[in-house]
Amino acid sequence: QVPVVESGGVSVQAGGSLRISCKASGYPFSTYCVGWFRQAPGQEREGVAAIDHDGSTSYAGSVKGRFTISRDNDANTLYLEMNSLKPEDTAMYYCAGDALTLDCSGDYLMAVGAWGQGTQVTVSS
Fold it and tell me: Who's near 103: CB < 8 A, 6+ residues apart?
């Protein structure tokens, strides 16, 4: 695992907004494909979003238009802005990254594995 500090996970009402972050250290963050995947209890993991070193992004269909992924390379930090949250967005969110891929996506990073312990997002109806 890469040393990271994940933060921002809280409980919110449906329709609300939240930003979670993942600050990494010890790696050339700016050259990595980085992103998020999530897992709800009793459910399979789902790739959420990814952003490549050139700033190109990809999103799962379930979050497209509601979530925005971004990165601050100077701060070695990855963000996920989540709007119009739904109860089905409730999950543990994990950040991940990889330096050697032509497929920068949440699904790919899900296979690579989490950098940290995750941050819990709970959306109540």
Answer: none
Handedness of CA 12, 13, 14, 15 (dihedral sign): negative
Flag residues of the chain having pLDDT under 70. 1
Kind and range of the H or E element at 19? Answer: strand 18-24
Check residue 1 and give its pLDDT.
65
Give CA–CA dist 110/107, Å, rounded. 5
Looking only at the bridges linking them, the beta strands covering 119-124 and 91-98 are antiparallel
| Rounded (10°) CA dihedral 47, 53, 55, 56 | -50
Count of CB atoms within 10 A of residue 61's CB? 6
